[in-house]
UniProtKB/TrEMBL annotation:
Annotated Pfam families: DUF1403
Name under which the protein is recorded: DUF1403 family protein
Superkingdom assignment: Bacteria
InterPro entries: DUF1403
């Protein structure tokens, strides 16, 4: 995170004055070029990377504040990507489709398994109000979702609160990862904490899952930090800060790109919605806009399983939804 509170406030003012339903603006070419990848990072100074990240987060902030109808689906799709990366680095084999199945194809109240709990942990980040994310009660649930015992939650919540008040958002970003490492939680929870702190710092209603998909970058930053500690500690911290900032910038651009893609798909769904005559179709459209996906047998008031399947078939034929499972049965649909 790289925005000072003053910069965040100016972004909020600018966003509030913008048209509430402005069309998604593509990321400008100069910004893509300014955000370093692993090959170009070494030649950058911390200040250069911070400037690029400030621009990337500013662009993302504009997307968040538009509060589009499809924002729920957008955040959940980002949460799914973060969960898949988390599962991979935990040595699990589940990909996005299998994680989605673990949650959507499980009956309410049944155990979704370790991989499913990872997804629920990231979905919670995107769904709960941002101001509630770092409370003791929610942190305990998040730790369990990530496979950790919910011990010393009060102390953890206090450290994260203090981290959020640090002067300089670079310090806040690095601090969230440091706290996770101190408790032995690893990089995934460091990314989760950082996303929550960013949302709170910028006054977003909900957090946007970002850094979970960039854990490989955080691993490189830790390795470079360990190597550099043998020589100059200050330089090691600079390299770590650069890697984390660049990872956040790349994640922000990826989120913006996904928002543009889902925005186009949502426009198609909304365009055909008035043509739907099935009872309960409006509920289905709302669920598709607010979530990652729906099972074709999900209960919808006033609709039979057969009627719901027919509705999805029609939406698919109209190009308004995609079938995400690739199966002939237990089919899953989403934007």
């Amino acid at each position: 995170m790289i925005l000072s509170p003053e910069r965040a406030a100016s972004l909020q003012t600018a966003s509030a004055n913008a048209a509430p339903h402005a069309a998604a603006t593509p990321v400008p070419g100069w910004l893509r070029q300014a955000v370093p990848d692993a090959k170009t990072l070494a030649g950058k100074e911390v200040e250069d990377v911070a400037l690029a990240v400030g621009a990337a987060i500013g662009a993302l902030d504009a997307v968040v504040r538009r509060e589009e109808k499809w924002a729920g689906a957008w955040r959940q799709r980002l949460a799914l990507a973060a969960a898949a990366t988390t599962a991979k680095h935990a040595g699990r084999v589940e990909d996005e489709a299998e994680l989605r199945d673990a949650v959507l194809l499980t009956r309410p109240g049944d155990d979704v398994g370790p991989a499913g709990r990872l997804l629920l942990g990231w979905l919670g980040l995107s769904a709960r109000p941002a101001q509630d994310l770092l409370t003791e009660k929610n942190l305990g649930a998040v730790l369990e979702a990530f496979g950790y015992a919910p011990d010393a939650v009060g102390d953890l919540a206090e450290k994260l609160r203090k981290c959020s008040t640090r002067v300089g958002t670079v310090a806040t970003l690095a601090g969230a990862f440091t706290i996770a490492q101190q408790y032995g939680f690893g990089r995934a929870l460091g990314a989760w904490f950082t996303d929550a702190l960013l949302a709170q710092r910028l006054g977003w209603a909900h957090a946007v899952p970002l850094l979970g998909t960039e854990m490989a970058a955080s691993m490189r930053s830790d390795r470079s930090r360990g190597a550099a500690n043998a020589t100059i500690g200050i330089e090691a911290e600079k390299e770590r800060a650069k890697a984390l900032l660049a990872a956040q910038a790349r994640a922000a651009l990826r989120a913006i790109d996904l928002s543009a893609e889902l925005g186009r798909r949502a426009d198609r769904l909304l365009a055909v919605a008035p043509k739907l005559r099935a009872k309960g179709a409006d509920i289905v459209v709302q669920r598709l806009l607010s979530g990652d996906a729906m099972v074709a047998s999900d209960p919808v008031a006033g609709m039979s399983d057969r009627g719901l399947r027919r509705l999805f078939d029609r939406l698919f034929d109209l190009g308004a939804v995609r079938e995400l499972s690739g199966r002939p049965t237990f089919r899953i649909y989403g934007l």
